[in-house]
Amino acid sequence: MEASFRGSLSKFCGNIYDICRRCLFNVLSFGPIPQHIAFIMDGNRRFARYRNLKPGSGHQVGFLALMSILQYCYELGVKYVTIYAFSIDNFKRQPEEVQLVMDLMLEKIEGLLKEGSIVKEFGIKVNFFGNLGLLPSPVKIATEKVMAATAGNSKAVLSICVAYTSRDEIVQAVQESCKDQLSKIWETRSVECDSEENIITLPDLERHMYTSGCPDPDILLRTSGEARLSNFLLWQTTFCILLAPNVLWPEISFRHLVWAILEYQQLQPYLNQKKKALLGNTLKLED
Question: CB neighbours (10 Å) of residue 266?
Fold first, then answer.
């Protein structure tokens, strides 16, 4: 009887929490809602170390935190979410730790396509951005399978940056742009290197960025209080609000997202003014 009562009470409290959360989202929706939020999920290892947990436990708890944050974002109407899951530089860590993270990543990636997953619930298209050739074969195959299976989804987008650094992204964008221009030169048999048609432009580079097709982030939130981009979306964050709450990623909660939205709503008019000014200057230069 006591166990049944506790279960009923827990369910009741959960329902009350859901109702309060949705009411708060309705209030927030009277202001501008960010279209795209990016997260640097910092602090998983420290979370485990501070609590004397076994290796990998911090990442396990961090994944649960990610699922909650994604649900909150998509319920609120944020269409694009991008997360920094694994940097190219992280491959320099101890081999045992890297293997542990890769095994966990494989398990969670495969779980994205299961019934009842957040991908199924919200109709999410999943992207994997980065130098995927650096991933172990099973992980790489799993990323390709998820991207193919969710390619037709259009309600929301989740972009997962793995084996990624922004410098690597920019370099590959330059390389691909050069290949395109060389192909055009070869097709037209043009050897005038200073011709305007052969000059690589800003749109050329942006077209070859991993994030091509996604709007630039409105908010970039990095947990653990670190106010560094750490080679993440350097190109895309010109007019992005940077937030660094002093909380480890597994500890991130609903209130941190609400705080981020309120910060965005306060600063959004200023950012729009700056964007319009830059666009105006760009048009003048082109004229």
Answer: 11
DSSP lists the bridge partners of residue 222 as 40
Tell me which of 18, 42, 216, 218 is the catalytic residue.
42
State the Cα–Cα distance between residues 47 and 62, nearest whole angstrom: 9
Per-residue b or e along 162-182, where b marks 16 or more CB atoms closer than 10 Å to that residue's CB: bbbbbebbbeebeeebeeebe
Question: Is 83:105 a contact under the CB 8 Å cutoff?
Answer: no
Q: What does each C-alpha distance from 172 to 151, 167, 178, 209, 275 come to in angstroms?
A: 23, 9, 10, 8, 26
Dist CA 113 CA 115 (whole Å): 7
On whether the CB atoms of residues 247 and 14 are closer than 8 A, the answer is no
160: phi then psi, degrees, rounded to nearest 5? -110, 115
2-28 helix and 57-76 helix, angle to the nearest 10 degrees: 50
pTM score of the predicted model: 0.88
At residue 233, φ and ψ (nearest 5 deg) are 50, 45
Six token digits for residue 72? 């909150």
Least confident of 38-47, 106-115, 198-207, 223-232: 198-207
Is 89 labeled as catalytic in the residue annotation? Answer: no
Contact predicate 58/250, CB 8 Å: yes
pLDDT value of position 188: 67
**Biggest alpha carbon distance in the chain?**
86
Task: Give residue 183's pLDDT.
Answer: 81
